[in-house]
């Protein structure tokens, strides 16, 4: 983990409620896809955890949905510096997959799949991306995944674009030997139940610190208690216990 | 710089400075040791430890507040056996000072069991007894809510251990002085306060509590004035040393609690927001002392009349 100041170099809307922010700074502690950063914002006590969408050189890309006080503050920033903790969480283990990989993102679970898909493509793997949204107006990053050379399928709940339904509807007839996913918990659970294939899931929890000190974010797994911020946010399919 | 004296005596052990990260906000130390040399601290109080391993309460168990946070972690810890066998040896590799052992429990026997095990560890300098736990045999009422039950635990622990016993008081009481006097009479060597204030937040969309357990402990900078008031009241009512905490984020806050009567000061939630918070307070203390023309930190303890 590293605490440092990042300079905002870009902050623009992707949809009505989703923003993309690019920052420049010391990214040396970001070691892989699926990790997150924790952002200090003026006037708010707790930091805000946001997944690494991409990290190349000293440029960090985040995609966030404006849902409350903190993300509203972020939305209105055009320049300046942010105090950020980087290198948090375990991230996706890329050594476990075969040659044909499915990456499944739902809503703001799409961003972390981007860096993962990019790195998997750089390793020469065949990557199919399934992106799930509620409506056509909420879709973002479809072209970016296509540009990586991923076969890219979109599902919308209202059927206004792509497959009508959920990501699990778009998964049905695909063949793949491993998957990675991130999204709202009901989606994760549906994916878990939709396929016999093994994979990795990224979870969210309310966090006090984001670096393992407060025990605020713990969950039970078949491999013992884990902190979502430290031994997570990525868990393997085989260890997950669904509580909620 | 370097001229001022920051050393204080805490129940027979000299601290290089009065700064002590508070229980539950510093784990068992080594997460922070990866970031900086934690030997710079006076000492620290490790995560509340109980007889048996505990997962704690269901999540969500953290909620943000204006200038603070609520936690309902519920004493997640690996249990005293694992703490003694695994956490303390791991800590020994990065911390060469005496550590403060924070003890929780749900019956008098559990407190005594855990305190005895930790009393036997060389690394432990003090036993900080967190009496703000529900008594499973007493209808779930917190031991720390009444003078009698607070005193009962301290007396029982005191009988069985050799190391200094510090009673950590809950602020959720009508008369903090009565509790302080009761634990002093029961043999406590020192008192630390305040633990978290009982709080609650509601999600306006769902109309449900944010915390799964509904309520939790409120802490962070917002509670500093409550801490200053209670430390002042208690320090003026007892003759044993008092450790102050609640909302400390700066070296100025440390001076304020010490003027109120604290011999040393614990830093809690601030460590979670800024992992370097305790170290930075230690580094800034000499500068702030000079600013207020304090040569020896001991001269300000209880200095507010
Ligand atoms: C590991 C991780 C990665 C995440 N990655 C992303 C991402 O890439 N893009 C994105 O848009 N969102 C992401 N989130 C969710 C994001 O953290 C919340 O949307 C954000 O904290 C909301 O802050 P707010 O101040 O706008 O909302 P408020 O409701 O005002 O926040 C109040 C408090 O609740 C917390 N909180 C609210 N919603 C969540 C949530 N869903 N998860 C955890 N804490 C929450 C806030 O951090 C804050 O402490 C991630 C969450 C986690 C845990
Ligand atoms: C996440 C969290 C966990 C805590 N766990 C414990 C604990 O295990 N035992 C204990 O005595 N106090 C515990 N506390 C209370 C703190 O030690 C401290 O008394 C309180 O937070 C007030 O200080 P602060 O305002 O600086 O945080 C905890 C506090 C927080 C925020
Ligand atoms: S958020 Fe503090 S331990 Fe995970």
- Structural class of chain B, by secondary structure, is alpha/beta
The helix/strand series of chain B, from N terminus to C terminus, equals EEEHEEHEHEHEHEEEEEHEHEHH
Per the principal axes of the C-alpha atoms, what is the gross shape of chain B? globular
Q: Count of DSSP helices of chain A?
A: 5
* Count of helical stretches of chain B: 9
Number of strands of chain A: 16
Radius of gyration of chain A: 17 Å
The strand order across the widest sheet of chain A is 4-3-7-1-2-6-5
Helix/strand structural class of chain A: alpha/beta
DSSP strand count of chain B: 15
Annotated CATH homologous superfamily of chain B: Aldolase class I
Detail the topology: elements first, then pairings:
The complex is a heterodimer of chains A (244) and B (305).
Chain A: E1 2-13, E2 18-24, E3 36-40, E4 48-51, E5 54-56, E6 59-65, H1 69-75, E7 81-88, E8 100-106, H2 110-122, E9 126-133, H3 142-147, E10 151-156, E11 163-164, H4 167-171, E12 178-182, H5 185-194, E13 199-202, E14 218-221, E15 224-227, E16 234-236
Parallel strand pairs in A: 8-9, 8-12, 9-10, 10-11, 12-13
Antiparallel strand pairs in A: 1-2, 1-7, 2-6, 3-4, 3-7, 5-6, 13-16, 14-15
Chain B: E1 8-10, E2 13-15, E3 19-21, H1 30-33, E4 62-65, E5 68-71, H2 80-92, E6 99-103, H3 108-119, E7 124-130, H4 147-160, E8 165-168, H5 176-185, E9 190-193, E10 197-200, E11 202-203, E12 208-209, E13 215-219, H6 224-235, E14 242-245, H7 251-260, E15 264-267, H8 270-273, H9 277-291
The structure holds flavin-adenine dinucleotide (FAD), flavin mononucleotide (FMN) and FE2/S2 (inorganic) cluster (FES).
Flavin mononucleotide sits between chains B (22-25, 47-48, 71, 73, 75, 102, 130, 168, 195-196, 219-220, 223, 245-248, 267-270) and A (208, 214, 216).
């Amino acid at each position: 983990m590293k605490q440092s100041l990042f300079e905002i170099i870009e902050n623009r809307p992707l949809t009505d409620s989703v923003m993309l922010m690019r920052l420049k700074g010391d990214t040396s502690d970001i070691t892989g896809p699926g990790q997150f950063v924790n952002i200090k914002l003026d006037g708010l006590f707790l930091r805000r955890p946001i997944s690494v969408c991409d990290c190349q050189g000293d440029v960090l890309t985040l995609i966030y949905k404006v849902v409350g006080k903190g993300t509203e503050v972020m939305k209105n920033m055009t320049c300046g510096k942010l105090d950020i903790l980087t290198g948090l969480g375990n991230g996706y283990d890329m050594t476990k997959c075969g040659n044909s990989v499915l990456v499944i993102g739902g809503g703001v679970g799409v961003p972390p799949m981007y860096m993962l898909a990019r790195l998997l493509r750089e390793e020469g793997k065949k990557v199919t991306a399934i992106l799930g949204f509620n409506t056509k107006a909420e879709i973002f990053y479809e072209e970016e995944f296509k540009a990586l050379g991923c076969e890219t399928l979109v599902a919308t709940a209202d059927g206004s674009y792509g497959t009508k339904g959920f990501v699990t509807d778009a998964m049905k007839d695909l063949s793949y030997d491993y998957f990675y996913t991130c999204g709202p918990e009901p989606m994760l659970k549906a994916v878990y139940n939709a396929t016999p294939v093994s994979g990795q899931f990224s979870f969210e929890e309310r966090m006090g610190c984001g670096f393992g000190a407060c025990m605020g974010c713990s969950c039970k797994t078949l491999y013992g208690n884990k902190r979502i911020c430290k031994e997570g946010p990525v868990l393997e399919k085989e260890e997950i216990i669904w509580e909620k | 710089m370097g001229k001022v004296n920051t050393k204080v005596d805490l129940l027979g052990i000299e601290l290089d400075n009065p700064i002590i990260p508070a229980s539950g906000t510093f784990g068992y130390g080594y997460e922070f040791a990866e970031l900086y040399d934690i030997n710079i601290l006076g000492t620290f109080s490790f995560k509340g430890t109980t007889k048996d391993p505990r997962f704690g309460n269901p999540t969500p168990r953290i909620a943000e507040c204006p200038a603070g946070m609520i936690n309902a972690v519920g004493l997640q810890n690996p249990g005293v056996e694992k703490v003694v066998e695994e956490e303390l040896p791991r800590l020994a590799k990065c911390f060469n000072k005496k550590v403060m052992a924070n003890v929780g429990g749900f019956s008098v026997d559990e407190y005594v069991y855990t305190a005895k095990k930790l009393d036997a560890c060389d690394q432990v300098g003090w036993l900080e007894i967190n009496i703000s736990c529900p008594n499973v045999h007493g209808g779930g009422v917190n031991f720390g809510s009444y003078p009698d039950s607070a005193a009962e635990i301290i007396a029982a622990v005191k009988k069985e251990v050799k190391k200094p016993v510090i009673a950590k008081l809950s602020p959720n009481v009508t008369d903090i002085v009565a509790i302080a006097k009761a634990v002093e009479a029961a043999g406590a060597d020192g008192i630390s306060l305040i633990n978290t204030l009982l709080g609650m937040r509601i999600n306006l969309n769902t109309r449900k509590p944010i915390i799964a357990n509904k309520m939790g402990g409120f802490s962070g900078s917002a509670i500093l004035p409550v801490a200053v008031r209670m430390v002042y009241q208690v320090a003026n009512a007892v003759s044993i040393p008092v450790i102050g905490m609640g909302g400390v984020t700066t070296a100025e806050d440390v001076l304020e609690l010490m003027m109120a009567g604290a011999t040393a000061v614990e830093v809690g939630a601030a460590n979670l927001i800024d992992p370097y918070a305790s170290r930075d307070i230690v580094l800034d203390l000499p500068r702030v002392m000079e600013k207020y023309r304090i040569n020896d930190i001991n001269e300000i303890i209880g200095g507010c009349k």
